[in-house]
Amino acid sequence: MDRPRAVFRSHREIALMRRAGLVVWEALHVAGQIIRPGISTGEINAAIERVFQQHQAIPLFKGVVLGVPGQQPFPAVCCTSINEEVVHGIPGPRQLQEGDILSLDTGCKLDGWCGDAAVTYPAGRIAPEVQRLVEVTKATLDLAICLMGQKKFWSQVAAEMAEFVRSHGFSVVEAFVGHGIGRHMHEEPQVPNFVSPVWRRSGDFPIRPGLVIAIEPMVNMGTKKVRPKPDHWTQVTADGKPSAHFEHTVAMTEWGPYVLTGPPGQPLDELFLSPKMEEKE
Ligand code: MG
After folding, report:
1. Average pLDDT, the chain
2. Residue range 227-263, pLDDT digits in tens
């Protein structure tokens, strides 16, 4: 038994992570309101950076190095991945065109605790089959959050996520997975959106109150295969077809799953955002 150890968080720690998650939600919400054909990904990055500055939150993406040869530290506070770009696109002067989809991923640290989330937004009107890809990807994340409250092991959730995507004729990206999250953005365990035999033997983990994970299905219209662009960061689909990405930081609690990067007004906010909860250990 050398399963990667998931850390289980106290109520107080989950309450602090909810506060970080609310800042991430606000950043993605503010970005969503300015996304339109003609805006550049650099302008979207600047808007997100302003939200983090307003809350004195530390951006988690800026300066990240994944250890890939030739790769520069990530230069921005969010990843902007357009159409066939799956993840890790770098913001810059590129302007969104009518019919594009933009996968926007960002995270911050507030008072020592992290939140991480992603949304795929349309720019103007998008093709019906691309709309379906976006909807299925969002539904895959919603399904996973719901199943977290019903299943005992992550493998049971991941198997249903993969089957749901397949049943719609799309493919789950296997080159990237979700992750545990807490004081650091990337912690154990790995949180795949599919089940491989090797991972099931050594990487599966129980779903119990206190578990906090970033769940992030990446769904491709065609092949699941991805390849890096020459910038060593941006990952694109091998067949050039579009890809979508949704992510939430989610805590398991005695009362069910709690979407820490969800909008204000989550059912558990009344409990976890009360001053009492932050005093309790
Ligand atoms: Mg993540």
Report:
1. 95
2. 999 999 999 999 999 999 999 999 999 999 999 999 9
For residue 228, cis peptide bond before it (omega within 30 degrees of 0): no
Query: Distance, CA 194 to ligand 1 centroid (Å)?
Result: 16
Phi and psi torsions of 275, nearest 5°: -60, -30
Q: What is the pTM of this model?
A: 0.96
Distance (angstroms) between ligand 1 centre and the Cα of 221 equals: 21
Distance in Å, CA 216 to ligand 1 centroid: 6
Q: How many angstroms does the Cα of residue 254 sit away from the middle of ligand 1?
A: 24
User: What are 194-231's pLDDT values in tens digits?
Assistant: 999 999 999 999 999 999 999 999 999 999 999 999 99
Tokens of 167: 């049943």
Instruction: Please compute the mean of the pLDDT values over residues 3-21 and round it to a whole number.
Output: 90
* Contacts of 274 by beta carbon, 8 Å cutoff, 6+ apart: none
Burial class (CB in 10 A: 0-12, 13-18, 19+), 70: exposed
Pairing of strands 212-215, 101-110: unpaired
The full 3-state SS of 248-263, as one line of letters, equals EEEEEECCEEEECCCC
